[in-house]
Amino acid sequence: MSTEERDVLIVGAGFAGLYQLNELRKRGHNVHAVESAAGLGGVWYWNCYPGARVDTWGPMYQFSDPELWRDWNFSELYPDWSEVRAYFQHVDNKLNLSNDISYNTRITAARFDEDSRRWMVTAESSETDEIREISTRYLLMCTGFGSKPYIPEIPGLESFAGIAHHTARWPQEGVDLTGKRIAVIGTGASGVQVAQESAPVAAQVTVFQRTPMIALPMCQRQISEEENAKEKATYADRMAKRNTTFAGFDFDFLDKGVPDVTTEARDAEFERMWEIGGFVPWLGNFNDIFFNEDSNRAFYDFWRDKTRQRINNKELWEDLAPTDPPHPFGVKRPSLEQRYYDIYNQDNVDLVNLRKNPIDHVTAKGIVTSDGVEHAFDIIALATGFDAVTGGITAVDIRNGQGQSVADSWADGAHTALGAATAGFPNLLFVYGPQSPSGFCNGPTAAEAQGDWIVGFVDHLLTSDVTRIEPTGEAEQTWQQKIDAVCELALFDRAASWYMAANIPGKKVQMLMWPAGLPAYLDEVNTSAANGYPEFVKA
After folding, report:
1. N or C: which end of the chain has fewer CB within 10 A?
2. Burial 400-423 (b: 16+ CB within 10 A, else e)
3. pTM of the prediction?
4. Which residues of 450-477 are buried (b: 16+ CB within 10 A; e: fewer)?
5. Nearest to residue 134, comparing CAs of 151, 156, 111, 152?
6. CA distances, 240 to each of 94, 249, 375, 379, 449 (Å)
């Protein structure tokens, strides 16, 4: 078996991987990407379940290069998966990225060789079963935060005689929902979307809910060609603004907290945000919303009362929009909904509260709950989330020169320097990975913002003939201390969220993201670059 030689190998062909590939290729480096899917898009290849769509305004959910957005239009404010996939094809047509991407190829193992100071990577084709060996100086993991689906252990699930799929592994050809009895397990973004999409056509939809979702109104609408053309005049300024806002959008928190205004002014702001919809009530709210419990509760109460107005059956109020919050608002990622709460006014939609009546087991016919009732279904949609952020990395058997794996190194929690590298694993870098802005940031913005720093770093290393870099343990400790300092003031640990790695049994509960916002992150990494990357030992 011959060995391919690369300067840089990129794992993943979503926003982060494509940006790295294009920028490093432009600088003349021998760079290649591998992607386990059959096409571009990362999560947007796999997420083709009913109702799947982005939760970011389409105009801001794309690369900032004018050559890419100038002649591209989304037809909806929040595009669906098929239109996002078409966008990636548009990008490929412009940049010819596929020339340097191996599709249907999964990295199964990577070993660092200290003698050559290179990663020896094993890649396997799902089409041909061919196994390739790739030798690369630097290995860039661009696996995103949602590349490893999580299915909880549900007794008897394998015995179900109907159709059962995790939403992130939905069949590419789709599943006909018409007239079917459908179970939706989970009420994160995918669960909300599947439920509201299937309710108009299904014979029966039963939603199995553990924790109420504090979902926000999407305020979806069509975007005409004329509006798109007019809006293009604002794109450059709005794209430039993304690096200056907490979450990489073209809007930001207010410059005041709830205690700074009267009750009337507070409620007027809440109403204004609500009318705009989307993430504005989350990331364009008062600036103390994640830190002041009273301010947070004020918005929750506003949300609760707005939501209850849409639910006719008052017996469902405590399940769907309880009097007291299940957790502080916004410390779990809110979903955006179009008609989710309205579907519970339909006769063909039921809710099972798993905290009162958990799933006992699955049979060939359906799901048996703890009260002994067997709910019969034709389709089970497992909207059960992901082993987020770290799962896509630890799914690969990555081992250093001493034989230690990343998974073992992170058994007691992920540890990184600058949210980009981990001590003990030379020449290994992550984009949109653990302890970076990742889940707190607009995906394309993070891919470019952190990506620019990574590209500059790798370019510097390759042009300087640096053959080995590794972050110091001291740099990791400093990074962790900065994360902890923010978390000690915030409300994030009040929810068992994937932000905190609390959704996976046995996984260390810790903040997996950089919680201080994108501008603070860029200040940290740009300072590192200006000072010659002191967090790393170079050889």
Report:
1. N
2. beeeebbbebbeebbbbbbbbbbb
3. 0.97
4. bbbbbbbbbbebbeeebbbbbbeeebbe
5. 111
6. 22, 10, 52, 45, 11
